[in-house]
Amino acid sequence: MRDSKQNLMWGALVAAIIGGLLLYYSGLRGADQGLAFAALVVGLILFIATTWVLASAYKPGDYTPSPDDLPHREWRWYQFLRHGYNAAVLLLPIRIYLGYLWLSSGWDKVNSPAWTGSQAGAALRGFVQGALAKTSGEHPDVQGWYAWFLRELVLPNATLFSYLVAWGEVLVGIALILGVLTGVAALVGGFMNANFLLAGAVSTNPIMLALELVLIIGWRPAGWWGLDRWIIPRIRPLWGEGQPTSVRAREVT
């Protein structure tokens, strides 16, 4: 039985890595468009199938609801992503993939004079001006309230925001790759992706945001194969979270 579970785990890891590589290829510049679309579809199918297989084999622990909880019954896949030990197998390639995207993007910005050098803020001003040009029409790409935020707060402080974006991307990338406060890193990354989308920039932002939501749901196992395995138990008392009353041996808490 133990060997079959280990084989399942390693098989799922291989499938998840292949899925991550396919997602990476789908976002490459200059990649054949047809092949990129096929890679995206196959990669998503692999991740969904791997999640289904692992969640089917998952046996959740017994969590007693408190009087403050609404009556509910959580889906098995949701419990699996939140607590399942083997969910770390699925979430590791997603975490590394997102970390690479953020780190490479941020590193380019940090080494660009238009972002953090002698002309810091120039690139961001150009981005904001492009976003403000998308506010016209009956159904504008950029909503009026966000245009106000860009015009009144970001543009006057473009240099500050330029450094925040560049170094924020680098730090999020490093945190995701190393598995340091994975849930927080995914939340910050998702916040940046959401802002790029609100500014009318699509690109890889929707896919990254969707994957970050998966990491946020599964923040416990997402960092299990990373430094969070040692960090989270030591900082858990800071927010007053105790241990669950009944946890299975192969669950992450």
Automatic annotation (TrEMBL):
The keyword 4Fe-4S does not apply. It is a multi-pass membrane protein. Keywords: Membrane, Transmembrane, Transmembrane helix. Coiled coil: none annotated. InterPro entries: DoxX. This is DoxX family protein. The chain crosses the membrane at residues 7-28, 34-55, 83-103, 160-189, 196-219.
